[in-house]
Design a protein that fits this description.
mainly alpha, ATP-binding, about 65% helix, globular, 7 strands, AAA family ATPase, ATP binding, TPR-like_helical_dom_sf, nucleotide-binding
Length: about 950
């Protein structure tokens, strides 16, 4: 046990030591995060107060979650950041503007919540430059949703800042909150400590049998021990507090404590009970507002009896002794009493300064449908949306629908609420509100919106092709209504079939394309989106010869169309994956892939769209894999995974798999491949099956396990999906020729030639020429290999250039042309070894050994010791970017940038930024004569 100024901290030595350790690390400049978890009354709030009192020479800021049905966006975050807002102008402009809009300090496009998170991270980092900052969040499970999400993002991005965050979360209500962060679980006090606390509370010694029985009944819960012993002497507890002697002793501890608080209300004056109810109904805790509401109800504030009963504290703000006391007061009142109090609070709340709270209280005061109240809530929802509070918008619209008397506006509001809930990742609630909307009369346009929403919910739950017909139906309804949303929805339907369905069949991509082509849908307002739909539809409905040229016609606008608003940018980011898949798998255009992926990354960074940035980085990483720059690809994949983890999204394992396949890392790929295959079969994601076929084809061909490569590539060839068929055909031809299955190879070659004819790109021509060479002999094969090397080079597909040198060298050696074979095998080995494509490099090395040439081990570049993020920071710093600029680029704080750079300097043996360019260039990747292996003898 410990001696502590906090009576409630008896027996909390382990917990206090953990908090002391957090503070010690913070004072040393380290970032720390801790989530204190436990049931109601277990002592979480007291531990946070202990932390605050011990935090000398530290800036402390608080946020308190309060149980209420009201959802006001960023309310808790604003409370927490208030002490640091004078520093707002020091933030980079996009972050500053995002925070101003989120806090209602300025008008603007709704900010991305992750950009707001980065702004908060930067704000706290700036504040910590003079003194460490300690962020304390009590009852985190009751924060408004967007505040909680933002603080979780900040907690996951802390690394090298003198900022610590400690959250208190009540279980079981908060079991899903802040999962994955370091946690300190608080249980009941042991018998000795609980007995000591109890005897301190009653002011006397207790008989051991009585004390132990009382402690057991309270399960060591400190609040229960203190509250149930309140006002009782040692003698009064002599018979314990079991179910036969006290009604509050029944049920879970938290419920028993709440009933104990409720039991104290009966003896209070009626005016005091009403005053407590006002305080319970208004979570702000503003005493002036409480007095105005009390005056409206014609009662004089009588706080003394409530304070004496240990229920509430009055000061600069009104605070209940415990959230269970607030709950007891509010839920113990009659419905009409609660409505009267909310009516008084609505009248007392300033309609200009706080219109959202006024609207909410007016809604809670309504005893039936009321259009004026519903309209006020709808306006509050619109303000929440403008500030980026989608969850708050959903809740406010839902309440507006509930109090709307007329069925037409009720249906419209219910539909809007359903759409907002879906956007806030609450599909179950969205489904319920969609059902409400469906039972109301709706306009033709709203009927189309409802159909699209139901399709989106279905697609989000299961990536099956069942969503496509529903999207097509919605698109047809939009067309009939003359809505510009029609073409966008047709593109969405095609996208659903691309990523989840098949090309052929009644629900396939081709059927969707035919429907789009014949719809007569009006322009969408984005010429790039319209041209993309035309191109993809032509590709699927008319074939490659017509579709690919049409698709190319959209590239210029997709790459350069001006996007004036954040909404326009987000729409572009949503259609980018469809465009990328088409240009990759049908135009075989690596340069277009690079152009669109780079723009997607830049746009996502510029608007702070951290939900869209990870997939954009994955596409950009794929470009670098094909350029042969595996290190840069790894950096992008690592950043995408880190952002996905920080934003609560699943990592994008596809890119990790592709990189592992090209590197020949079978152990890395095996588990992920099996997991992805199960997911594909479970959810019906046909595109995943195609991806697995291609990936395993590359992996096993690199490892010279040709039978396995043949079977894997066959899966990719036969999956009837929009993507990966062509790439799988390339792998299948190589594996089939190596296995002597020449008829299979010829069949796949014929399909490949047909698929790539219209592409007319270096990548496509190189793939055909090399596949043809594998089935040719003599001078024809020789010519085709050389053509493939030239064409792949023209297309910029470096990995395929290296691979063609390898295949050409293998063919030459088998033809006894050893001297020329060595030339190409050296080139292949040098390229693959530089990329760290280990399996293909090993294939080249074995061929060189067979030709009579020894291969010297390569020296490791000094940068190989850098982690992906260190390498990314170092590269940007070497390019002249400032720490603040690098932080904004990578969504980390400038302090974290500096921390990474210090580690980079140490690893590279330098001491300044000026030395970075030379150090990163390092020694050559290969240390061999003439840039290649050393011949034997």
């Amino acid at each position: 046990m410990i001696a502590s100024p906090f009576t409630d901290l008896v027996g909390r030595h382990r917990e206090c030591a953990a908090l002391d350790d957090l503070l010690a690390g913070l004072r040393e400049g380290e970032s720390r995060v801790l989530v204190v978890r436990g049931e109601a009354g277990i002592g979480k709030s007291v531990l946070l107060k202990y932390l605050a009192t011990q935090a000398s020479r530290v800036k402390v800021t608080w946020a308190h979650g309060i149980e209420a049905d009201m959802e006001l966006p960023y309310a808790s975050l604003h409370q927490l950041c208030a002490p640091f807002l004078p520093e707002l102008d020091r933030l980079p402009e996009p972050q500053r503007d995002a925070l101003r809009v989120a806090f209602g300090m300025a008008a603007g496009d709704p900010p991305d919540r992750f950009l707001v998170g980065l702004a908060v991270l930067t704000l706290l980092t700036r504040a910590s430059e003079s003194r460490p900052v300690l962020v304390l969040v009590d009852d985190a499970q009751w924060l408004d949703q967007v505040s909680l999400q933002t603080l979780e993002f900040v907690a996951r991005r802390l690394l090298a800042e003198a900022v610590a965050m400690a959250f208190a979360v009540r279980d079981p209500e908060g079991q899903t909150v802040l999962n994955g962060l370091p946690a300190l679980r608080i249980g009941g006090l042991d018998t000795a400590a609980a007995g000591e606390l109890l005897e301190t509370a009653v002011g006397g010694r207790l008989e051991k049998r009585v004390r132990d029985r009382f402690v057991a009944e309270m399960h060591g819960n400190p609040l229960a021990l203190l509250e149930f012993s309140r006002g009782r002497s040692a003698a009064g507890l002599a018979y314990g507090l079991d179910s036969s002697s006290h009604p509050s002793a029944q049920g879970p501890v938290a419920s028993r404590i709440e009933r104990d608080f409720a039991s104290r209300l009966g003896s209070l004056p009626a005016a005091t009970r009403t005053l407590l109810l006002i305080a319970a109904a208004e979570p702000v805790g503003d005493p002036c507002l409480l007095v105005r509401a009390a005056t409206s109800l014609e009662i004089s504030p009588q706080a003394g009896p409530a304070k004496a009963a240990g229920l509430v504290e009055f000061g600069e703000s009104v605070r209940f002794r415990h959230p269970l006391a607030r709950s007891a007061v509010y839920h113990g009142a009659e419905p009409e009493e609660r409505r009267a109090v909310h009516r008084a609070l609505a009248e007392a709340t300033d309609p200009v300064l706080d219109p959202d709270r006024r609207a909410w209280h007016a809604a809670e005061a309504a005893d039936g449908p009321d259009e004026e109240v519903a309209a006020g809530l709808e306006q509050a929802a619109d303000r929440a949306r403008q500030r980026g509070g989608i969850a708050a918008e959903a809740v406010l619209l839902e309440r507006a629908a509930e109090v709307t008397p007329d069925p037409w506006p009720r249906g419209r509001r219910a539909l809007a609420a359903a759409e907002a809930h879906f956007s806030a990742a609450a599909p179950d609630r969205a489904t319920e509100l969609a059902t409400v909307a469906e039972l109301c009369p709706l306009s033709a346009l709203d009927r189309a919106r409802l159909a699209r929403l139901r399709a989106r919910i279905l697609f989000a739950r299961s990536r099956s092709d069942e969503a496509a017909p529903l999207l097509l139906d919605a698109a047809a309804q939009f067309t009939a209504a003359g809505s510009p949303l029609a073409r966008e929805t047709y593109l969405e339907a095609i996208s659903a079939t691309i990523f989840a369905g098949r090309v052929h069949g009644p629900t396939g991509a081709r059927a969707a394309a035919v429907a789009a082509r014949g719809s007569g849908a009006p322009p969408s307002g984005s010429k790039a989106a319209d041209l993309l739909l035309d191109g993809v539809a032509a590709l699927l409905a008319d074939g490659y010869e017509t579709g690919v040229p049409s698709l190319r016609g959209a590239l210029e606008l997709l790459a350069h169309e001006e996007l004036d608003t954040r909404e326009a940018t987000m729409r572009w980011l949503l259609l980018a994956p469809v465009a990328l898949e088409a240009f990759i798998h049908y135009a075989w255009d690596l340069h277009a892939w690079d152009t669109l992926a780079s723009r997607a990354v830049r746009l996502a960074r510029d608007v702070g769209a951290l939900g869209a940035l990870p997939p954009a980085l994955i596409y950009a990483g794929g470009v670098h894999i094909h350029y042969g720059d595996f290190a840069e690809a790894a950096r992008m994949i690592d950043e995408a995974d880190a952002l996905a983890a920080a934003t609560g999204h699943a990592p994008h394992k596809y890119a990790t798999l592709v990189l592992a396949a090209w590197r020949g890392e079978a152990d890395v790929a095996a588990g992920i491949i099996e997991e992805a295959r199960e997911r594909a079969e479970q959810l019906g994601e046909v595109s995943l099956l195609g991806a697995m076929g291609y990936i395993q084809g590359v992996l096993f061909n690199g490892l010279a396990r040709y039978e396995e490569a043949l079977e894997a590539a066959r899966t990719g060839v036969e999956h009837d999906g929009f993507n990966f068929t062509g790439l799988s055909l390339v792998e299948h031809v190589e594996a089939a020729t190596r296995c002597g299955r020449l008829e299979q190879a010829r069949a796949s070659l014929a399909r490949l030639v047909e698929l790539t004819r219209a592409a007319d790109s270096g990548w496509a021509r190189g793939a055909c020429a090399r596949s043809q060479a594998l089935l040719a002999d003599g001078d024809e094969a020789d010519r085709l290999y050389r053509t493939a090397i030239e064409e792949f080079g023209r297309g910029g597909v470096t990995v395929e250039v290296a691979r063609t040198h390898l295949l050409y060298g293998e063919w030459l050696r088998r033809g006894q042309r050893r001297s020329l074979a060595r030339e190409h095998l050296r080139t292949a080995y040098s390229m693959f070894d530089g990329m760290r494509a280990h399996a293909f490099a090993e294939r080249a090395r074995r061929e060189l050994l067979a030709s009579g040439e020894h291969v010297r081990a390569r020296e490791t570049k000094p940068t190989s010791a850098l982690t992906p993020q260190e390498s990314q920071v170092a590269t940007l710093a070497a390019d002249g970017m400032t720490n603040a600029g690098i932080g904004a680029e990578l969504f980390i704080s400038p302090h974290t940038v500096e921390w990474h750079l210090r580690k980079v300097y140490t690893k590279l043996g330098i001491n300044s930024r000026r030395a970075l360019p030379g150090a990163l260039a390092g020694t050559p990747a290969t240390q061999t004569r003439d840039g290649g292996p050393v011949p034997a003898g």
